[in-house]
Amino acid sequence: MKGTRAAQRYAKAILDLAKDRNESDAVYQDMESISQTITSSEELQSLLASPVIKDDLKRNALKEIFKNASPVTLGAFDILLENNRINILKAVAQKYIQQYNELNNIQVATVTTAIPLDSNLEGKIQDKIREITGNSATIKNVVDPSIIGGFILRIGDLQYNASVAKNLNNLKRQFSNNNSYISKI
Amino acid sequence: MAEVNPAEVSAILKKQLSGFEAKASLDEVGTVLTVGDGIARIYGLANAQYGELVEFEGGLEGIVLNLEEDNVGVVILGPFQEIKEGSVVKRTERIASIRVGEGITGRVIDTLGFPIDGKGPIEGETYEMPLERKAPGVIYREPVTEPLQTGIKAIDAMVPVGRGQRELVIGDRQTGKTAVCIDTILNQKEFYDAGEPVFCIYVAIGQKASTVAGIAKVLEDRGALAYTTIVAANASDPAPMQVYAPFAGAAIGEYFRDTGRPALIVYDDLSKQAVAYREVSLLLRRPPGREAYPGDVFYLHSRLLERSAKIINDDKIASEMNDLPDSIKHLVKGGGSLTALPLIETQAGDVSAYIPTNVISITDGQIFLTSDLFNSGVRPAINVGISVSRVGGNAQIKSMKKVAGTLKLDQAQYRELEAFAKFGSDLDAATLNVIEKGRRNVEILKQAENDPYPVEDQIAIIFAGSKNLLRDVPIERIREFEREYLEYLNMKHRDVLDGLKAGKLTDEITDTLTNVAKELSGKYKK
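^ Those are the sequences you sent over. The predicted structure of the assembly is below.
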């Protein structure tokens, strides 16, 4: 990931400042919205990445889009622009979210399922998470019909894969291993 | 393809299906950031260890080679085109290894141990042997004392190789490096037939697939494939496969070594492996050093060649050897050996380039092949003046040691005086004598490709040469004389040859040899 290390340092500085001013929750909201907005808007991405567009224009655009942001966030825009690092804004936002979660002991678990989770299933998955990590976590549900059935649970670097697609794949691999009757995957 | 019986198909499928268990697994994972040229950078995998095997989606595997602050560099073992940015990578908590068993002889396999000769899976029980393994420590070793017969007169007489030795074969392209090694493998047939096989491993790195196929064919035709394994990472395979091919070969060799049997491994060639390693290292952004090779290219070769060893002939001590894989712990026996013949290709005879000097300093001697000799018809083109064997002398059988003792000196003298040879009759008798003897010895040491000599025949003919019994035979008829002499001895004096083979050189034996040589050489007198 481009500029991950720099992003980590900016995020740490922003978090430290936000903590001092008791604004870390507000900045967290800002960062969430920044991350989402940049991901969803291709125009904004190319605006920030473009070396041709003047810094002032970028600054005005950002302050217009995120006009309700806290002063710490707005200051972050300035410092990133000044240091020619505005292109890593999204990475900074993501790192901030990560560090904020770590600081407040919040775990985010991504659950991929073929159909949206209902509350009953969510409870069962919460149990599974507690079994794996010993703590509860906020669940983020991603719907992906290509896994056919079951679920994939991802918490940080851990993945619990109980999907039908994975088992089918394993079966296919077992069959095709040293088996001239079935072509290789 | 043979006709398929439908019942057979469903039987196989049923068998495989019955062993299948649908299960979920908890894995440590990371995400692919970038992928290209056989290298992937992974975000996550926080606990991955150096050298660990990781698994990509779809079953492709990779080896962790770089652990950085925010990512992990992985070399991919296989076609990397199917890996995409963002795909998930799993830790396997295993280190890269291949499965070795008795069934691996006679097969052609790739770096990961999968057969590529179309003869089906490796048969029999197999054991997991790690690719990277520490060499045996000092107390588990023994000095080199047993000879490894190469079947090449010039080598067995003057640069002898012992079991457990590492002897470098170095020379320009097209000087017969591979031929020397293939002949050595062919010569082990004698021991295979006698029930004491020296298991051979031929590692082909970055060669044309057609060349490898040709070598497999030669070995098969001569009955040598039965005790030989070919590990092939061809020119079209990704660089990481070429880097690890010698390690796979060494793992196979270690299986035989640690189960108390002698093995011979040929790395053909290590300069190509170094080039592949340079490619991988540069892609991993390791800083380039001399000739753009990474700083640890010396360690790459030293740790590989250090695995060749003669293991102590004591089962109890051997069973406590360091870093033994669990899978073969119950099979360990002492007295095994792994002999290595690494090959290095030089550019225009330049041995002071980086990789040649490195490997020369690691090995226990080198066999030098030069294109000048090759072109002037001296084949094998071994330059005996600069070829050495640092430990092999102790491994020569007694009779050979006695007979060949003066040969190297004689030839050195001959080369010094050779320049004067063109003055012809102006030379004194002593000088002329040295030159004439030297020329005949050069002729004796010539040998056709794929024609290894049994050690007793070698001793007999070198005896005749070094005792100057051939002075009456014209140089162009030496080959003819040699054939007749050896045929005669094999027919009439088999006991003498057997004595030589057993290491004896009694007066009786020398008398017989002298008489036969004198008698036959009379026929050739002009």
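The longest helix of chain B spans residues 239-258. Chain B is about 40% helix and 20% strand.

Shout if you want it in another format.
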